[in-house]
Amino acid sequence: MAYCIMSDNYVKVQLEQMKSLGEVGEKREGVDNEEQVPASSPSADPPSITISSSDASNTSITSKQRGKSRSKLAKDDKNSSGKSISDLSLHGSVVSVPAGKNLNRLGQERTLHIRGTGKILQGKAESNGNYVTIQPSKNIPDARREESLKLARKRRPVTVDTAKAKTSLEALKISIKQLKWKEFPLGRRAPCDIYWHGVSFHDNENIVSGQVNKFPGMIEMLRKINLSRAMRTMQELFPDEYDFYPRSWILPEEYQQFSTQIRMVKEKDATLNPTFIVKPDGGSQGDGIYLIRDPSELRVMAGSQAKQAVVQEYIQKPLLIDKLKFDIRLYVLIKSLEPLEIYIAKEGLTRFCTEPYQEPSQKNLTHVFMHLTNYSLNVHSGNFVHSDSQNTGSKRTLSSVLYRLAAKGVDIKRVWSDIIALVIKTVIAVVPELKVYYQADIPPGKPGPTCFQILGFDILLMKNLKPVLLEVNSNPSMRIEHEQEMSPGVFEYVPSPVDEEVKVGVIRDTLRLMDPGLKKPASSQPRAERGEEIPMEAETPARSPDDGALPSLCLKQVYPKYTKQFNCLRLVERTAALFIRFLGVKGNMRLGPTAFRTFIRTCKLSNSNFTMASVDILYIDITRRWSGAVPDSREAGMGLQAFVEAFFYLAGRRFKSLPLREQVLSLLELCEAQLESQSSVEERRSLSCSRAVSRAAKTQTPGLGANPQLNSPAPLRRAASQDYRLQQKLRPRTLRANVEN
């Protein structure tokens, strides 16, 4: 038993059973290089004993006079000033304890780390304030290792690979510096926590962990044609919910349909002369966009091949400020696909045309500075105004424009509510195809990173303040400087305060949300009731201990916060889940004829009126039509969009009397019920097989050794024959299950 005797000025530690520990300590003096918390004493000698307490007030005891006698200790104690406990003898080792700590606090646990002994001694003050019981604990290397790991996990900065960041590099550097994280501009052999890509998920093919700021397939999904197809599918199911996307036609496959519809409109009302905007499928920054008023004006032919493009209705009555047309660039973060998490930046940009707006006519159709709001086009106009102010110039902050509208009596909350609904509905429309791409690049069970992405939504406000979606950019510009002509023919990049104000905040707070050390909240987010107006009010975000003086998050979660209001729109996503389930081969994105037949048979969709031969004909017809619509398809088979068309057809056949939305919902519920019942049967079979095997194991030879009477050959033969008969009983059942599957 060991005792530590405490008084007002000193503490004597008497350990009667630790002679061997003292000897080992002398042999290993100065050898241990383990890192210690520096003591208040300026002595450079290596510390030998560390006293730590459970209330996080740790005191280091530094060795000064190893080998001195107890009498020397007593003599020095008499000369103590009372501010510190000068000497502490432990079998020939004298240590010093800094003052300022009350060692007599009741119930306070202490730990003595004995250097060179491999032991940790722990003690606790008794109620009389005079005694501390010391007892050996676990080895010091293990304890130190655990403490260092905890400290490392707590303090290790997040690592960001910026080697592929490209134009967003400057804003990214500022964000990383503000967060006090660690940047690797040339990459890193060891894995990083976050990889920031400038173009696509495939900028770096060798990532097997961490987080990447791009989703696989996002570029393909947000091309003009694919986005239009996804929005058209949702418009078929929910025409009133998706009326924010202009009516569109896909060229060249729908050229005849477009021409016929326009001719019929003009024949019905000769005074109508609508305007249309043509956007190349792979175009960006306003390249190749032009306006037409007649199908004959289409420039879709380039040599012998038709150029793919989208034709949309032109919004002729936009909201104007200072007689100029403008659009909104809103930044949206998709934090994850499963579960779906969407954040919207509270601040955005407004890009203004540089020529006063007039309704389109045959004379002004070619005036791009009047009709097109693209920054990359208007920046070349002589009227473009670079301004350091956020509320003037050709590029302004969204908040400055909303403030100006509010001053005119506009209901800004209503506008924000409509914009949030537009964003959520658009993301819901593109998520099904994204999930197909995601499982192809990162199949379940395969090592790979998780993904997030910042998207740029281009939104136009009509004169009646209704928001209209123009397009969604998978790689919105995050450049925080602009090109300016310093002298004739000489251009330089100069800082843009408006861009920096918005974009740095978006990137910084995206990184904060993706911090791998950030704990997810235990409670779920509050959800808005269906039909309830979505507020856009600042919320007090949870701050991490390392946030310091960082401002509150500029990103607001809108989903799953408003799940109840929008969850009913996710019918196509449920259809995509069926599609992915029957793909079979990992990494595949197309359904073969056998897999399609398996889907029909498993969900029991065939009958006497719709035989498997009819199923094959349906598959061939739809697959052939979509193969022509997507000429650059790499794989043969039925893609998701073709499968959705087939699913809608099957729903119409089975539930003829219902509207399309109810048809699809009814067929989904039927298929999901069939799959759930099949899974339940398989689970019961698996459970019965496991129970039978466990019963058989109890009768097998391992249990025979415990009973000497069973060591004779006869019991062994009987046990073996019982096991064989049990195996025979189980085998036909397993075969039948395989045949049914």
TrEMBL record:
Transmembrane segments: none
Stretches assigned to coiled coil: none
InterPro entries in the record: TTL/TTLL_fam
The keyword Oxidoreductase is annotated on this UniProt entry: no
Protein name: Tubulin polyglutamylase TTLL11 isoform X1
Organism classification: Eukaryota, Metazoa, Chordata, Craniata, Vertebrata
GO molecular function ontology, one term from the record: tubulin binding
Compositionally biased residues, Polar residues: 698-712
The UniProt record lists the keyword Metal-binding: no
Biased composition (Low complexity): 39-63
Gene Ontology terms describing biological process: microtubule cytoskeleton organization
Region entry Disordered, spans: 25-87, 517-545, 698-718
Gene Ontology cellular-component terms listed: ciliary basal body
Annotated keywords: ATP-binding, Ligase, Nucleotide-binding
Alphabetized Pfam families for the sequence: TTL
